[in-house]
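User: Round two. Same drill as before: sequence, then structure, for each protein.

Assistant: Same drill it is. First protein:
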Amino acid sequence: MTQEETRPIASVDHGTPEDLDGTLVFRLGYDGAAYSGFAEQPGQTTVAGEIRRALETFLRREIELTCAGRTDAGVHAVGQYVSLPVHESELEVTRSRWMRALAALLPHDIAVSGVYHAAPGFSARFDARSRTYTYRIVTGDAPPLLTRSVTWWHRLPLDVDAMQDAADRLLGERDFKSFCKTASAVGKPTHRCVMEATFAREQALGEECLAFTIRGNAFLHSMVRTIVGTLVEVGCHRRDPVWVDEVLAACDRAAAGPTAPARGLCFMDVAYDDGALTVCP
């Protein structure tokens, strides 16, 4: 790696977002095990804090960073997006230079996989049309080995057909207050639209898992993990699929199942309007 590839660009006045000429957008992934979630918190190691440090080191100025969706402590990502307003000179930095610089400046468990340009005012959060998460479960007597940090080992067998029946009841725009962390729902809207909720078998490194993929316009705090914990109750035959209808109607977190462990959840992708992002040259 050459000195030119990692050297910060010349310092400029950072101004306000309205003064800047465009938007840089990064697609990134991370192993969430070592982090207290994505969002910055005083005294905590967070994904956003590490990304901010790297970008401010390179740009030599303060930045305003926006993410597509905040993930909880221990949750992973392969398709998280972040955006920041930039000057014209910063838009001239090439993709290869960004990739090399951020590989050097970010910790080993955070990696950038794409660099894009967007119009001034673009927001990775507010311009997102949908987000996709996948939760992975391993069942059986033998615990996962090579995938143990990204799956939930559930010893009991699961009735996938019953779980799919229950998951289908979540489709459409509904009030998901029962699936939201109680404190974060106070005084806030809890309606969300779920567009997809499906199960599939996957194999990775010779180990099989059950993958639950859910896509929606947005998600509440701990919503996906609470949905998974609820569906597992159905899969174990402790509850019938129609119970999910009752959980939705209750609008009470106590009515739903337990929250599944964070390590099995991965933020997979974000959808934006066609043409909103252009690949950085």
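Second protein:
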Amino acid sequence: MEKSRLVIVHRRTELAELLDRHATLGQAEFFLRSRGRTMAAVQERHELLGAALATVRAAVPPDWRRAEVEREDLNRFMFTPEDIIAVVGQDGLVANVAKYLTGQPVIGIDPEPGMNPGVLVRHTAADAVRLLGNPAPGGGKRVPLACRELSMVRARLDDGQELSGLNEIFIGHPSHQSARYRLTTPQGLSERQSSSGLIVSTGTGATGWCASIALERGGRTLPAPTDPALAWFVREAWPSPATGTSLTEGALEAGEPLRLTVASDQLVVFGDGMEQDRLTASWGQEISVELGIRPLRLA
């Protein structure tokens, strides 16, 4: 049996990106001052992340393996069944990594307590030391992490390609022009539409993008993060002789797919704002969106 591996996921700090662009601290500081900002705040956030990463690295049990991956490289990283994932950063970073997992437990670690909502990064770096040690009373094997199972959403093309999202999946035109398609609900209702795209959200995503749309629509009840249910909304459906606006929102239970048949040259499908990691569906292809088969296990 393979040894456990801790995979630490993080993003490059703003300071690191400024140095890539401006080469020196002095030039980076001048750039920030010209925009009414100070280097001190950027430096502090850089140091807080560095301190949190150092604490998590030191907490790795000696008999475990360790790996690290930055957000930009997630789509090229190979996760294994033995992994435990430590996400050090903002809530959105947990969503970014969730789509690449197949049941591995995730520990969300907030390097700046009080600065993030803490919905998904619920632990401090000090908590990670306790969670990763996690010895059984009287010694012996470590106690498995206690995890909540958060529902996910899955999109699949009729050629077998698929992707998942923790917050939501978006379907729309790649250049943000009107997306044209035929929408079919699980109840068999169907309508040709032209819109700004479609959002299908989980209960986790119901506190973000989806919440603002639901509020504008009069406050539809949205699922909780662990509910096996999804909410969907069509954005800015356009009425015309050929397109309708009667099917613009609804709920999906387990086993109830929402189907779109593409009537544009192409539509893109991506999850949790990661547009660079997307599926592309061409004219006539069918896109099916439903509850994901694998929830995110969040410690």
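The longest helix spans residues 39-58.

User: Perfect.
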